[in-house]
From TrEMBL:
Residues 81-367 form the FAE domain. It catalyses: a very-long-chain acyl-CoA + malonyl-CoA + H(+) = a very-long-chain 3-oxoacyl-CoA + CO2 + CoA. The keyword Transmembrane helix applies. One of its GO terms (biological process) is fatty acid biosynthetic process. Residues 384-464 form the Beta-ketoacyl-[acyl-carrier-protein] synthase III C-terminal domain. The chain crosses the membrane at residues 31-53. Pathway: Lipid metabolism; fatty acid biosynthesis. One of its GO terms (molecular function) is fatty acid elongase activity. This is 3-ketoacyl-CoA synthase. InterPro entries: 3-ktacl-CoA_syn, ACP_syn_III_C, FAE1_typ3_polyketide_synth, Thiolase-like. It is an enzyme of class 2 (transferase).
Length: 491
């Protein structure tokens, strides 16, 4: 095998001389275009500076109107800047819940848990799907030896309290923040929304104050965690010196499908227990101890399109058994949503050089009708870390291809899917935790979180690392086994 691999490598070897030349030509082009503004402005500022240097204090005093106008303009522009600029919002820290070992199950073990509610044909389908799902042998599901056809409400509530409170306890221990300081609580869970709400459960458990602002987001799918970040950011813009607590989860015991439709059985294969807790702050005093600063949030909603709206849809089958159907259009819809999202995100984050290449490609295709592929901007020039929702192997394969990402940048998402499964809206945080545990987060690094959800939605959040995360001191869901990763995933 090694010999064959060597032959393949040799046959695919590029012309290194040409590659090196093109590399430096491209780097020179990107540097020139990205710094064009500065290259143009510096000579102008130098000329203005030389001109002003000819003015003495006596000259200025002899022109009081000009001095007054200049002073007024400076005061006005300074005031407008400080009044209109948004508050900086920081991610103090976050935590991902790791269930006790008694909840760990293999792929075959999970199928056996479902043996009482599915017929033989459905079980065989699960076995086949599980082989290429990308999930490993140590994911977590509720501990019942057999999953009942009708899961009692108490099991759902126990799971919710275990994963949500577990994640929040870990977060509070890491940050040292007192619960009385938290002014905003946001919870997102799509499938399970009891009364009282999950946010009320948090208030009751921690005995939060009467003035705490709470939100409970339901039915918004796997991208709801990033929607919660956007909501927290908007609330923190209007509430000074505040902390916002976000809990993201999916209570899978409430969403098992016990029928025969293959489109609904897929979710049984992919979803697993998990939750994340995030603490955000707008306090300037928190900047030094925070891990990240929020840079951008871009939300894309394709719900006006009927095909997009129905590609992940919860309803009942002919036997009145409830489940979520995943249509064959899902990947195509996700791709379209991602293109729309990055079209908005691109101008905010990409260097001008990449924007010009994208614009030139668009003009060539649309105006001059050239038959050529749409140019996909090189987001590797902007982001050091990609936290892609671990929705399934097919999703990750598609994004790896479309964004032209190397294996190492896809590693956090693939390992999250392998080790923890699809933990819904919390999966992007398990991704980031993986990179932290590996010691890959350096000061100034930028991380791009991408989430997809029913409706259909694609949401992006961009963070910038305020400090280097010391893996030796970091304690998260990956810490005690990070040396075992990455692993080779077989399908």
């Amino acid at each position: 095998m090694a010999e064959n691999a060597g032959e393949v490598c040799q046959s695919n070897l590029p012309n290194f001389l040409l590659s090196i030349r093109l590399k430096y030509v491209k780097l020179g082009y990107h540097y020139l275009i990205s710094n064009a503004v500065y290259l143009l402005i510096v000579p102008i500022l130098a000329a203005v500076g030389l001109h002003l240097s000819t003015f003495t204090l006596e000259n200025l005093m002899n022109h009081p109107v000009m001095l007054k106008s200049f002073s007024t303009l400076v005061v006005y522009l300074t005031t407008v800047y400080f009044v209109s600029r948004p508050r900086n919002v920081y991610l103090v820290d976050f935590a991902c819940y790791k269930p006790p070992q008694c909840f760990m199950t293999s792929r075959q073990g999970f199928i056996e848990k479902m043996s009482d509610i599915l017929d033989e044909e459905s079980l065989n389908f699960l076995k086949k799907i599980s082989k290429w799902s990308g999930l490993g042998e140590k994911t977590y599901v509720p501990a019942e030896s057999k999953i009942p056809s009708s899961v009692p409400m108490s099991i759902n509530q126990n799971e919710a309290k275990m994963v949500i409170i577990g994640a929040i306890d870990d977060l509070l221990a890491k940050t040292g923040v007192k619960v009385q300081e938290i002014g905003i609580v946001i919870v997102n869970s799509s499938a399970f929304n009891p009364t009282p709400s999950l946010s009320a459960m948090i208030v009751n458990h921690y005995k939060l104050g009467v003035n705490v602002i709470t939100y409970n987001l339901g039915g918004m799918g796997c991208s709801a965690g990033l929607i919660s970040v956007d909501l927290a950011n908007r609330l923190l813009q209007g509430q000074a010196n505040s902390y916002a607590l976000i809990a993201s989860t999916e209570i899978i015991s409430s969403a098992y499908y016990s029928g025969k439709l293959k489109s609904k059985l897929l979710s049984n294969c992919l979803f697993r227990m998990g939750a994340s807790a995030i603490l955000m702050s707008n306090r300037s005093s928190d900047r030094r101890r925070s891990k990240y600063q929020l840079m951008h949030v871009v939300r894309t909603h394709k719900g006006a399109d009927d095909r997009a709206f129905g590609c992940a849809y919860q309803d009942e089958d002919e036997d009145e058994k409830k489940g979520v159907s995943l249509s064959k259009d899902l990947m195509a819809v996700a791709g379209e949503a991602l293109k729309t999202n990055i079209t908005t995100l691109g101008p905010l984050v990409l260097p001008m050089s990449e924007q010009l290449l994208f614009f030139a490609s668009l003009i060539a295709r649309k105006v001059f009708k050239r038959k050529m592929k749409q140019y996909i901007p090189d987001f590797k020039m902007t982001f050091e870390h990609f936290c892609i929702h671990a929705g399934g192997r097919a999703v990750l394969d598609e994004l790896e291809k479309n964004l032209d990402l190397p294996k190492v940048l896809m590693e956090p998402s693939r390992m999250t899917l392998y080790r923890f499964g699809n933990t819904s809206s919390s999966s992007v945080w398990y991704n980031l935790a993986y990179s932290e545990a590996k010691g890959r987060i350096k000061k100034g690094d930028r991380a791009w979180q991408i989430g997809f959800g029913s409706g259909f939605k694609c949401n992006s959040v961009v963070w910038r690392a305020l400090r280097t995360v010391d893996a030796a001191k970091e304690k998260n869901a990956w810490t005690d086994e990070i040396e075992d990763f990455p692993v080779h995933v077989t399908y």
